[in-house]
Amino acid sequence: MGTEAVKQAKNINIWLDQLNEESKAAISVDCVIFGYDDESIKILTIESDMPPHLGKRSLIGDLVKKDENLDGAAQRVLETVTGLKGVHIQQVHAFADPGRHPLGRVLTVAYYSLIKIEEYTLTDFKDKGLKWMDIHSLQKMAFDHKEILDASFSLLQRNVRTRPIGFELLPKKFTLQELQSLYEAILGISFDKRNFRRKLRSIDILLDLDEFTEGNAHRPAKLYSFDHKKFKAVSGKKEFNFQI
Amino acid sequence: MGTEAVKQAKNINIWLDQLNEESKAAISVDCVIFGYDDESIKILTIESDMPPHLGKRSLIGDLVKKDENLDGAAQRVLETVTGLKGVHIQQVHAFADPGRHPLGRVLTVAYYSLIKIEEYTLTDFKDKGLKWMDIHSLQKMAFDHKEILDASFSLLQRNVRTRPIGFELLPKKFTLQELQSLYEAILGISFDKRNFRRKLRSIDILLDLDEFTEGNAHRPAKLYSFDHKKFKAVSGKKEFNFQI
DNA sequence: TCAAAAGTGTTAACCCTACACCCATGA
DNA sequence: TCATGGGTGTAGGGTTAACACTTTTGA
Questions:
Q1: CB contact under 8 A, B28 and A106
Q2: Is the pLDDT of residue B97 over 50?
Q3: By C-alpha distance, which of B26, B29, B24 is closest to B109?
């Protein structure tokens, strides 16, 4: 906060008064948890138990604790609900319209997070109405969560082409076809297989594992993983322009 | 906020308790006010009057009022300090580290705003230490405002190439040279004059005013303005890809 | 041997980049 | 007439986009 508000202040008591009276609000984080299951983009949702939104699908969030920062709160929520630590998160937007929450003024900071859908373990939430929902099936949600979801997905679509984050949604080892299908699911467009592969080859951030898929009734596919070292090396170069 | 926090709740009283006790904070907006003066990007700053940041340059912000939304609070701050309504604003990021503010927990939502530097009128703030600072001269600021400035400028650099917002920093009528210099100042790179003009021509969002600059000791330059109608028409097209 | 997905090269169109000179004006 | 910035076209290189067939495996 700047100092505009205290233009008549002779001392900081006015500040303190304002902090106490005028504009305090509860602060929460809401996590848009993206997953990918080889078919489409999924969102982990819970069933809302708060009137008037009882029964609607809701994002997963919590109040931010005293002495906790926003990223930390988001990580805590994610660990609580999925058991995963160090998940990739990205702050999206703050939502604070008066009236967005039935119990009073609650400012929420939205995060998107990308998890490998096969690695998570739903802890003790199984009977709490946790459910993976296809992103396109979520048309109405509790509170302003549909608006939060839309903003988060837009930012994901914007970021995924220029940052190495797609890999966060795939198993550690993946085929080029899986990678392409993921991009297609996120962006809603389709790529030419040969052009897509040439692009990835030219960016040079994948590690060829010299392993193959097994057990399919067709030719096995090579497995790759995202190579952090290669990316670090290559992203330092001036002419580097990650663009899928 | 989702419903994760209430997994043990039998009724909403626990909610209310939490809202009252646990995680309330003051909420402010801070505006990074960008201007352009034909030389470089400037930030409108004020002198901080709060220890321990007394005398340092500070962004301009205020507490968010009850029943005010975030965009509205930012617009109010901007009107108060510049006299301008309907300024272009963009929410950037929420900052809430415990300890970021000396008086207690204050979550601030950062906005960048783009104003035509010649149109604003400093209202009754002239003796409050308001000052346009060159963006590159601001190395230390009050609170975490340098971090906020950096995040805002990064987002501006990212947005300016793909959204028609550069014009918000120029007078209504401008020359192509002015537009090019603006982009160069924001992005820190230089463009080829002929290529830049060809690009703008191909995007086709400028209105040729058939007017010319006057009073210069050289050939007059054509004046253009941003054409909202053209942009609307052209941005609807599927193949449209604004990219300067 | 069949079905199903993996993998691979070439060409044409387009876009980006680099580059140099004449023009119109006021002093 | 000179100094100053305004304004314009072309050619080469690189990138993107469109396109179809062979390979490998399990059933």
A1: no
A2: yes
A3: B29
